[in-house]
Every structure is written in C-alpha cells, then in structure tokens.
Amino acid sequence: MTILQSVSTTVDKNDVIRPLGSFENLFDLYTQRLPVQFSVIAELDSVVNPDDVRAALLKLQAAQPLLAVGVSRSGTTASFYRSANPIDLVVAPSGTPWEKVAIADQARALDVTTAPLARCTVVAHAHSSTIVMTFAHQIADGMSAAATLRDLVRALNGVELVARPMPAAQETLLAEAFEARPITPSEAPAQTNESPVQARLLENDESPVLSRLGSVRDFDSTPPDISSLVWPAELTSRVLACTRAQSTTLHALLTAAAVRVMFAETNRGSLALMNPMDIRRPSGADDSLALYFLSTRMGFTAEKSHDVWALAREIRQHIASAHTLEQLAGMSSGMSAASSSVSRVDDAIGAMVSFANYDVMVSNLGDLGTYEGHASLGSEVGAPLDTLGRRPEVGITDLFGPTMATQIAGEQILALSSFNGRLRTTMTTRDPMPHFLQKLRAEVEAAINAVTQTPTKALRPHEKTDEEIS
Q: Highest taxon of the source (predicted)?
C-alpha cells in the first residue's frame, strides 16, 4: 500500500491562492492513498525537440494557474499555493506506443504532496511525435485537460498564450451561476424536504443496484490494461445519424451497448453505471484547467436491458434531466454539504465509495476537432526554416483519452471522443474482458442494422483491424 503524507511545510501567506473547494479537497485527500490521475494523448505530425516542449510547458504553466500550484495542509484549511517548479518532462524511448506510456503513468502515482500536480511525456517517432499529459484529478477534468493539451501544441507553434485567472472552486462557480440565472415562473424552484446528501446525485429507480456497497483496491503500482479502437468515418457518421433518428445520442447508444456487452461477458444480474457530466456549458465557464464535473448514476438489471434502443433513450433522458443548471447546482450543494467536514484520508475514501461506487464509467470528451497541421511542410528536427525564419507548424493528427483508474474494485472506464470525424473508444481497467471494444462496436453495428436499410460490415469479436491497438 502506498500512503503519501500530507504537506505540512509552512507556506508563505503571500503564496496562498485560495482554499480548496470541498470537491477538490475530497479528491486531494482520496488521492493521498488511492491515486486518481488521468492522461490525455496527442499524436503530432512532426518530431518535436524535448527542449522546445519544456519551453512550451513553462508558457503553459504561466497561462494555466492550476498547473503551477501545490496543496498545503499546514493550516486549518487545505489551500492551493503558488509554485515555480516546472512540470516534469519524461522523454520516453523512440517509438514507444502511447498506450505503453499511459499504462506506465497509471502505475506511477503523481506525488500530490509536491508541486506541480501534472507531468508530461514526449515520444519521438520517425516522422512524428506523441505527447502524453497526466493530471491529478483535483486540478483537472477531461474536457479542460484536452483543451490544455491543445494549448501546449499552440505554444510549441510560437503562439502567445493568454494568462487566465485562477478558476473558482466548482461549488462557488455553480452557486454564483445559479443565483445569477434569469428566473421565469416555470423555473422557480419548488419547495423540497430533500436532504443535501439525497441531492448529491441524480439516480434512476434501480436503487437496490446503487445501494450496494462498493470497495476499493489498494494501490500497488500494478499496471492496468489499456486498449483503444478507432472507428471508420463512415460508421461514425451512421451512428450519429441513426441516434438522432432514434431520439437519442451517440453517448447514450455507446453506453447502452457497453452495459449489454458487460452483461453478456460477466453473467451478472445487475450493473451500476457512472456518467460524468461537464458543467461548463450550463454554468457559462470557459475551458480553463479545473475540476468541473458532476456525475449521475444509473442501475441496470439484466432482465430489463434487452432492448438497446430503449436503454439508450432511457440513458439520454436521465442525463438530460440532470444536465441543467438547477440540478447541477443542487447536486453540487448537496455534495459540498455532505463532504464539508471530511478532513481525513479514511473519511474521504468512505465518502467517495458511498457515492462513486460503479461497475462501468463512460467518460465522453465529445468532438475534439479536425487535423489542422501542415505536414506537407515537413517538420522533422532540423528541418529548414521558412523564408520568414519560422519553423514549420506542428499539427495534431489524433487525440485520445482520458485513460484513468480510480482504484474502485473491478472498474471498467470507457472513454469516448471523436477526432477528424472518427470515433475513438478507449478502455482502462485492471480486469480486462477479451475483445471488449470490438464487441462494443459489433453491438452498436447490430443496433444500427436493425433499424436501417444499409447494413454495416460487422467486425467479428476476435478480429482486429489495423486501427486497434491493445
């Protein structure tokens, strides 16, 4: 078992930025024994010099306040303090696959008692590079991490990054956004006797599934299994069109399919699902690096999960009903009240397990854009400068993530994102199911073929394509 000791060194009061919010504090205490860190990955169209990456990381730290902080527990309140320490840059052996880097990062805990709370790995290939950024969860979520990785590439291209203000704690952000919202009579909050703890997560009616106790595994540096699959653009387009026609979403269909595959593979009678939700759009927050998400949970039983489209519509409706400013502010307030007195690692672990126990989590970063590089210029190390003395631009050719483990026993964490019009699915787990991502794709294809005229070519469960890496 790895136990990191709380920071007890005295911090100059002028370096203290703000106290941790209750959600940040919960994650920070939890990660002192059970690391919760995640990685986002960018494939680049050129070979980048590690020294250039170091310089770009310094620019990134100057622009993103939470990349230049540590956590002090020397006083009565845990606080973020400023740190001038640079982000650690690891130069991996040439040609190392990104999955191998991400696996190693999950097996090597970030030291959350020091600063900063992130690290970066760069890998050179023959004519390209890979950058993997890993973040402690108390300073970041997947959406802001992907935006931060894009900013790192912008800095590599010589773009001056604008310094951002210190993000408010999530509870403050949502409370202020809720208070500032325009209220119509139909939106006026109804009186309720619901307790703060009951308000913390919106759950569906499978309460017996969700009320069972979860458990954690001791962190022992055992590496997880990470696999990924890139879907063809044509299939991705069909999924999007078909889910719209069926009054649901890509996320909901993929989640429903994952639930059905897990039932088929495990012969279990019930499953608990965790759905993280980004709060930026409802609250009006930008993409600054911060811990800005809340989750809903759903319970499923095998006998009620036969119709994948009905399941997908139920999941979509459940998430839509939770993803409103009123619901998010209520959940945040409830979680804050329930965790405000948590000050010990054991209490934080107990609190997290009580409302974060799940069998499968589906984290969706959405559409991450398209390739906008200039590979035709050639940008290997040592390539000549152009006529204006500029280096060729570095472009992102692919984005993956987040790859993450939370040390919940038996967890399966499925990450979804799209780039260049193609869906990416990534699974992180210490209890791998053979060919899970292929079976997931087959389940989705079967669902689409059942309601459309043009069948897709099914991928047999044991078959790999040149787009899958595992």
A: Bacteria
